[in-house]
Every structure is written in C-alpha cells, then in structure tokens.
From TrEMBL:
It holds the Pfam family DUF475. The keyword Transmembrane helix applies. This is DUF475 domain-containing protein. The chain crosses the membrane at residues 6-35, 64-90, 115-136, 157-181, 193-215, 241-257, 269-293, 314-332, 338-356. InterPro entries: DUF475. Keywords: Membrane, Transmembrane, Transmembrane helix. It comes from the Bacteria.
C-alpha cells in the first residue's frame, strides 16, 4: 500500500537528487533535500485540506485532480512562477529571465539579490495574512489553547488581520528605509518599492482568498441542492439525476482545490527564495516536495486517518507564520538557510507529538472526546 501510494514520489526523489548532484555537486544535493523537506512541511496542511475535499469526490474526479492537478502544481507553480517573480521584479522578459538563470548565474544572482527586498515583502505579507486569518479564527480544536483562545476573541474585530499586516509592513518599510539611508546602502531609495510590493502581496492574498471563498460557497450550494434532490427522490420514489449533480459538485470541488493548491504552493515558492536563487535547484526541490504532498493526500484519503493528528494543521500554519517573519526580517538582515529550512520541520514535529499526546490522553479518559481534558493532559 505504501509503495503503491508513494512509488512515484520515491522515483522522482531519486531522479531529482541524482540530477542535483550532476548539476551542482553535493552542495546542490543538500539544497534540493532541504527544499523538498520545506515544501512537504509547509504544504502538509495543503494535503490535509485536499484530502478532506477529495474524499467527497468520485474516482474520476480524484484522478483528474491527481493528474492534471499535479501538472499545474509542479510545472505551473513550482517552475514557471519563480521565473515570473524574477522577470517582474527585475523587469526582464520571461525568456530572458530563464536564459539568464541558466547561462549567467552571477548576473541572475545579482538581479535576484537586488530584487530580494520587494520579493520578501510581497511573499512575507502573503504568508502573514494566511497565518493571521488562521489564528484569529475561532476553532473547536485548539493546539496552544492559552494563546489561541484570546486571539480568537480578538479575531471578532472586523479586518483585524489586514490592519495588523499593514502595520507590520509599514514598520518594515520605514525600518528598512532608515537603515539603508543610515548606512548608505544600495537599497536606500527602495523603501517605497518594499511598501508597494507588500501591498501587492496583500491584494494577491485577498484575491485568492476571495476566489476560494466563492468556490467554497458554490460547493456548499451544490451540496444543499443535492441533499434536497435526495429527499425529494425519497418522497416520490423517482431516481434523481445523480450523475449530473455529482459531476457539477465535483467540478466546483476541482476548481476550489486548484485555487487552494495554488495559494498553498505560493508559500513554498516564496520560501525557496530564502534558501536559494538557483531556479534549477528550486524546481527540483519544490517538484519533489509537490509529489509527496500529492501522495500524502491520496494516503490520507485511502487510510481514512485524516482526523488522527488534529494539531498538524495548526503546526503547519505556525510554520507559515514563522516563514513570513523570516522573510520580512531578510529584507534587512541575512538569515542562514538552515534556520529557514528547518523551522517549519520543527513546528510540524512539535504539533505531531502534541497530537499523539492528545490521542493518548483521550484514550486514557475512555475515548469520550473531551477536548478540555485532552488539552490539559497533553500539556497544550
């Protein structure tokens, strides 16, 4: 079962790591490995969300998502998108950006380094909004209850996450501008660029979130309509048009999943810029990670163990929040790649072990599902 589900991921991993060694030696091997781990850790919540929706779809639409979806995820978001970011930020044509990345790495590195403040501001704001919207939402299951309960109460204030994100951006831009002018840095005139890039990141998040919400609402409408049709069919004794309804609902599920997948992929792509500027290594590492996310999605659906480790989603979002802070800090200061790559793994691991402790506490309490007892027993 494990080999069947993860077989393609293992094969892609082997090919990707071998290609990395031939491309840039053992240093490249290490970078690709770290990128793969980072992508998996940051996208674990993506797999959880995907599995929750995918299990409602029939076999045909599951195959569509796992074939067409993987092409969009790997080649679209992980390969094309980094080129687009560099092309826009460095004001190059896409073909010129790819050619530069492959033939003149020093110049490409210089352009990316020069554009890094705006890239970091854009990505940092996008990720910060994902994190803030998560922690300000009131949830039945809380991981760090002492922190999440008061934050959920604060979250009742309209647009609080947007206000906090804009304040953080303003402080980052002012601090960056003051530091650059004080030290006569090359970016002394780019505080305004950082501010604009951060606002663009915020707008992008709101557009993606709006599209996701739209598809989610459509999905709920289709589910309600299907339920009404089932009740009507039960009363009249006439069979309902199950194929049409299931197909339409599944189509909206597919669109919703693709929007979600794109939004979750974005954090991995942006985070990769904090680890390497080499587009080949980026594509290899993120592509391997994307394959594992897809395999993990299938595994969660087939095993039906989606709810076993309830804090993993929390850990993934805290990892996103940490990465957002790291990106905003790197606007001005350099942070070692190892720290960036492993912070997400540490948070995911912590949330996993917290989930295990919670499960043990529930089992000791007789499996009565009392979350309060479980939180106390598990120390969260």
């Amino acid at each position: 079962m494990l080999l069947k589900t993860f077989g393609w991921s293992f094969a892609v991993t082997a090919l990707g790591l071998v290609a990395a060694v031939f491309y840039g030696g053992w240093t490249a091997f290490g970078i690709v490995a770290i990128l793969s781990i980072m992508e998996i850790s940051l996208s674990f919540d993506n797999a959880v969300v995907n599995a929750g929706i995918l299990k409602k779809m029939n076999a045909f639409w599951q195959k569509i998502f796992l074939t067409i979806g993987i092409l969009i995820a790997v080649f679209g978001m992980r390969l094309v998108f980094p080129v687009v970011i560099v092309a826009i930020s460095a004001q190059l044509g896409p073909i010129e950006a790819v050619d530069l990345a492959l033939t003149d790495k020093d110049r490409y590195q210089e352009l990316v380094t020069d554009a890094h403040p705006s890239i970091a501001a854009f990505g940092g704001m996008f990720l910060l909004m994902i994190f803030l919207d998560f922690i300000f939402e009131d949830r039945d299951i809380k991981w760090l209850a002492w922190l999440e309960r008061p934050l959920a109460k604060l979250g009742k204030v309209d647009m609080l996450s947007v206000c906090i994100a804009l304040i953080v951006l303003l402080v980052s831009a002012i601090t960056f501008g003051a530091h650059a002018h004080q030290h006569g840095g090359a970016h002394a005139d780019k505080a305004e660029t950082v501010l604009l890039a951060g606002i663009a990141g915020l707008i992008t998040y709101m557009i993606v979130g709006g599209l996701s919400g739209y598809f989610e609402d459509k999905l709920e409408e289709e589910e309600e309509r299907e339920h009404e049709e089932e009740e009507k069919a039960a009363r009249t004794g006439k069979p309902k048009s199950a194929v049409a309804l299931a197909g339409k609902a599944a189509f909206f599920m597919f669109l919703y999943l693709e929007v979600l997948d794109a939004s979750f992929s974005f954090d991995g792509v942006i985070g990769a810029f904090a680890i390497t500027n080499d587009i080949v290594l980026m594509a290899l590492g993120l592509g391997i990670g994307a394959m594992y996310v897809r395999s993990l999605t299938v595994y969660l659906v087939r095993q039906g163990t989606l709810d076993d480790y309830v804090y993993l989603e929390h850990g993934a979002h805290y990892a996103i929040g940490a990465l957002a802070v790291i990106l905003l800090v790197t606007i001005q200061y350099e942070i070692h790649e190892i720290i960036t790559g492993l912070v997400g793994v540490a948070l995911i691991g912590w949330s996993f072990f917290s989930s295990v402790r919670r499960n043990r506490a529930l089992a000791a309490a007789g499996g009565d599902g009392d979350q309060e007892k479980a939180e106390v027993s598990s120390g969260v």
